[in-house]
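Reproducibility note. Readers wishing to regenerate the assembly model reported in the main text can use the exact inputs given here. Chain order matters: entities are listed in the order in which they were concatenated for prediction.
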Amino acid sequence: MTTDPAKPDPKPSRLDPEAMPRRDFLGIAATSLAFGACGFAAIGAARMPKAAVLPSASKKFKVVLPESLPPGEPFFPPGRSVALFREGDRVHAISTVCTHLGCIVKPMTGGFECPCHGSKFKPDGSVQRGPAPKALAWLSVHAAGGGAVMVDEGTPVPPGTKETL
Amino acid sequence: MSLETETPPGLRGFIENAKRAPRRFLDSMFRSGKPVTDRGRSNFVFGNVYLHLHSARTHRWSLRWLTTGGLGIVSLSAFLITLVTGVLLMFYYKPYPEAAYLSIKDIHFIVPTGRFLRNIHRWAANVMVVCVLLHMARVFYTCAYRKPREFNWVIGMLLLATTLGLSFTGYLLPWDQLAYWAITIGANIAQSPREVTDAVNITQHVDPGGFQKLILLGSDEVGEEALIRFYLLHVMILPLILVGLLAVHFWRIRKDGGLARPADADKRLPLPDVKTYPVFTEAPKKTYSLAAIVKGRTAAVGAGPENTVPSMPHLFYGEAAAFMLTVFVCVLLSIFIDAPLKELANPLVPENPAKAPWYFLGLQELVAHSAFAGGILIPGIVIVGLGLIPYLDREKSGTGEWFGGPGGLRLVGWSAVFGLAAVIAIETVAIRFGWIRQWFPEAPQLLITAINPGTVLMAVYGVYSVWLVRRYNSTRAGALGLFTCFLAGFLVLTLIGTYFRGPNWDFFWSPSQWPGH
Ligand code: HEM
Ligand code: FES
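Running the prediction on these inputs yields the following structure tokens for the assembly.
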């Protein structure tokens, strides 16, 4: 540009856009900044409802299987939604939370059955019929000494994973 | 002495003013005095912040019971009743597991009038859901959603969603077995997009289902966090949203030119009763300036708006009647039928059968085949489809007319027959012979999500309505058929879910055949 900004053009063209008055500019800038700030605040606040740490109680528990538990029969530790099995000295745990909509399945001859929409599962947890989309979860089990096992309801393991006592 | 005469100065004047104070206070409440003249009645409406959501005069067509059935006002009345009784329940209710259950038990058995208020709250909520659904059906069948009312139909959809949300969040608050398991199922429906993401193995990367459940419950299971969230939604967030939407809804009715009516409504209305007060006695003074801002084809100049009566009192009496009827019905139901309260919630033993509130049992019937299809896919498609109706049906004839005029009722009748037949046939197959999982246990999950009684039924209805559109060469015919079919499907599925499903979601002809458990 060749014009000196300090000396305004004496005859601006009719087609030139009118310069925005300074006050309008400041007003618009301030308003957009205020809205922008509110927008940022909203985005930040939207993160709040998602809990960073899940408030649920610990999902690990220790249990001693009864001596008399026959192989292939489930044992249900009181207060937990887990079925424990023992064959010889091998132990495994299957969650009894239905993979359909979260009801608690009950044992029946030849597996489990869900009271809510009638899903049926084989003893190894795989789906036999009903709306459940996937097999019951197998859970991590560890020997905890003295014949006790430590079960972690929060840690699924691949089906077939067993722990030797 | 009239109120307006000057009072003398000094003590006598003071006493005189004191004597007039009550009357003057009453007068000052209404800006324009008693509504005795035409203009007074108009002023009474637009001088009052609440009443001015109405226009000052109402067309006589809008006042026929046959036009609306008063269903909108009944819905509003039911909402107001839940508002008042709900605030009263909050005096005792404590949103914490176990404490919540005990406080509801206190309200039910100990608090004076507690059980009655709880019953009214529950019944009014049910009346509200029923009437909002019926109101939607009446708006649909009278073609009242058409231009310029499209947007109000969309606002209506949001009102419906908010109403259902209010009922659902309220269902958890007693923290009994019914509540706990209904919400567990609901939260897992929110999680059910996993059915698809698991099947294509991307859940570790994209998990919208898990996210939805986490936001809803504030945790991975239904517990204290979920209860406080539902409580907050139920007593604060959703009511505020509802009130905000209602303000827009009512304002738009007024601005869209009152209720929809047929173009020849004036000719079809019989002459008013001599005793009513329909005659426009004072010529309008402002018509010219109004003509500039009011939408419409002709400006009424020098003549009064034909066939309208002052909203005060004609419309308000009608509204008051609908309100009183609603109160009467809710109170009557509350006297005879108590709101349920089961045992304290037990996360280890599901209620069997675990049933959601009745208006979701149709969905639960579909969910019993596939959580994602029945709980998210189908409702989503229905909501989007309903919202699009006014933007797809741009026809003009039949607006404001039940079933869009002659021939409409027959179409609706046949569609109802077809809709009922289809849903009953598909349910019979599913109940009698099972579905894909029973026949081929190894079938992939995606197939089961895509093809189940719900999606098949929807496809059948869809094909039927496309056929109607082609056969009658009219979008309206297709919409009429589809809406009727969905109503029929909703009705049958809800009835089956409510009355014919027992333990393990097995089919029973009557609850007396349920196995003891
Ligand atoms: C909380 C729920 C609702 C309330 C309290 C409510 C209230 C009302 C009221 C009082 C009217 C006046 C006429 C009448 O009584 O029928 C009305 C009209 C209307 N409503 Fe609603 N409504 C609700 C939900 C809905 C829903 C779910 C829809 C549709 C999806 C809807 C769409 C409309 C439309 C388009 C009109 C104008 C009808 C006409 O011009 O004839 N509303 N509503
Ligand atoms: S929750 Fe188990 S079948 Fe639905």
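We highlight two features of this model. Chain A touches chain B at residues 49-51, 54-56, 79-81, 100-104, 113-118, 127-131, 133-134 (CB under 8 Å). DSSP finds one helix and ten strands in chain A.
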